[in-house]
Amino acid sequence: MNYKDLADLIYPNVKEIEYYEKKYPERKLDEGAMVVRFAPSPTGFMHIGNLRTALYAYLFARQNHGDFILRIEDTDLERYVEGAVDVIYNTLAEAKMTIDEGPKQGGAYGPYVQTERKDIYLKYAKELIDKGAAYYCFCDKERLDSLANKEGIKRYDKHCLHLSKEEVEERLARGDKYVIRQNMPTEGVSEFDDLVFGHVVIPNNELEDQILIKSDGLPTYNFANVIDDHLMKISHVMRGNEYLSSTPKYNLLYDAFGWEHPKYVHLTPIMKDAQRKLSKRYGDANFDDFIKKGYLPEAIINYIALLGWSPKGEEEKFTMDELIEKFSLDGLSKSSSIFDEAKMKWLNGEYIKELPFDKFMKYALPYFENSCIAGKYDYEKFGKLLQTRIEIFSEIDEKVAFINDFKEITKDQYFNKKLKINEEVALRVLEDIIPELEKITFTEDNLHQEILKSSERLELKSGVVYTVLRVALTSYNVTPGGSVEMADILGKEESLRRLNMSLNWLK
What are the chain's domains? Predict the structure, then answer.
């Protein structure tokens, strides 16, 4: 069969391959520099698994003084979500991952949006048909459905591979819909090396003749990736290990064009539990969700870096610069990682503790404004109490709720076996200290002094007086701060009102 004549039936006017090979020359990089891409589909918020892929690619590029490229894979028009590209950009910016080339940054290897590269893919598809490495397929849905086995798996049977030029010409003239399929070998094996999983062997009879160009003229993800990675001179391809078994398909495309294969780094999935991986499809949390919960971007990035990569040593807390320095492909795991939000929450708490207070308050302010204390109390006083007591900022609302939940105190709430407190002791403390508190200006120093004086007069440990006052002021046994902090926040008038009410409940 004359494949060249067959190829010329469609796309007669597209530019020759040589045009694009000259347009996208070799990159001028230092020796050893790596070029990696992050190529998400604009389908909504950034999933944690996608963000980890972006992070590893970014760390690898920076560590090797190379380029980190953002490419938008938007050929699946049915899944496209308006505004999703902005979400991708905003997420990478919050995560402190700078982009060297992309749709907004530009670059010598653009455009960086696949739908804007349609003509490029058509030329390369035509070239494959010319070489006999691809063919037109006119099979309709009914016929494709008939190929399903007992398990419902459809495997194409090369039905259209040997159509004559005349038959193809006739069907095209009739306006029959078609796709372009890759012509896979049916015998032997395909072998390649992966930088995580080592040497991989896939029997060729497991490789289906995948679609390269869809009926709408747009490329599939699998085809566009190969062309783009080649033209953009990508040195290393990082992606999920669900693509491990498909890699021979990509390599056969590289071979058909006579191109060098990139290096492959396949990453194990992040699991929700032992049975199911994290998935956008099932509504598992994404980066934006965690930010809204009150996680810091630095903590999220730090945690997901550890999901599939083991640094040398016991240290778990890393800045971005430290991650760039310490990251290595050797540390990537062949086993899946389970996403443990409790662990990320703990790590976030460590980051919160280390924030300068003014920065802590900047993060905390929206949560104070949406809590029960909004406009009523001094936020900074609460902030000083809470910075070391919360793990995520959304806990603020719960932590301050007690302040407006003052209710009648039962006598047994004062009971403390360790400090030997009972209702009689509580009554003595309140009767002694309330008159003295009425005389002073409420500052933390003055309050501490009066508590110490009361403990001396009553011959009680100061801890007894502090404890009784905490309960009497708040109606809670546990609060973010002690009695002095509570009295200072409430102010003199409100504190005395509550203390007198508590005294009356004891009598």
Answer: 3-16+117-267 (3.40.50.620), 355-395 (no CATH), 411-506 (1.10.10.350)
